[in-house]
């Protein structure tokens, strides 16, 4: 199981606002047939699942700004792919929270 942070930035648009683009990208996540979980944050989206599934979803997400008029898209991806045990978003957060006590 992998956890991926993805940030998709449309460039060459008529406005500095990106909320409509973000909403369209979230639609891809909501409609995904792959077995994924995601969490939207103010600056990026965190997705967990099998790496091949995540990369397929990210590829579709990357296309959304183009489909909505962007002339250029910058997509940044950070992959945490742990193979010694199953890691989840909750497990990672719990690990830090437990250490804060």
From TrEMBL:
UniProt lineage: Bacteria, Bacillati, Bacillota, Bacilli, Bacillales
GO CC term (a single one): cytosol
Region (Disordered): 77-101
Organism the protein comes from: Paenibacillus rhizovicinus
Family, as annotated: Belongs to the UPF0045 family.
Residue ranges constituting the Thiamine-binding protein domain according to the UniProt record: 4-96
A Pfam family the protein falls into: Thiamine_BP
InterPro entries from the UniProt entry: MTH1187/YkoF-like (IPR029756), Thiamine_BP (IPR002767), UPF0045_domain (IPR051614)
Protein name: MTH1187 family thiamine-binding protein
Compositional bias ranges of the Basic and acidic residues kind: 79-101
NCBIfam families associated with the record: MTH1187 family thiamine-binding protein
């Amino acid at each position: 199981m992998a956890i991926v942070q993805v940030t998709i930035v449309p460039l060459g648009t008529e406005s500095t606002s990106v909320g409509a683009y973000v909403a369209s990208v979230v639609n891809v996540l909501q409609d995904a047939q792959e077995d994924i979980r995601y969490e939207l944050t103010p600056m990026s989206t965190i997705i967990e699942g099998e790496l091949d599934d995540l990369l397929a979803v990210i590829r579709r997400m990357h296309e959304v700004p183009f489909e909505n008029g962007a002339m250029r898209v910058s997509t940044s991806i950070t992959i945490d792919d742990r193979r010694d045990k199953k890691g989840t978003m909750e497990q990672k957060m719990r690990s830090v929270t437990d250490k804060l006590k």
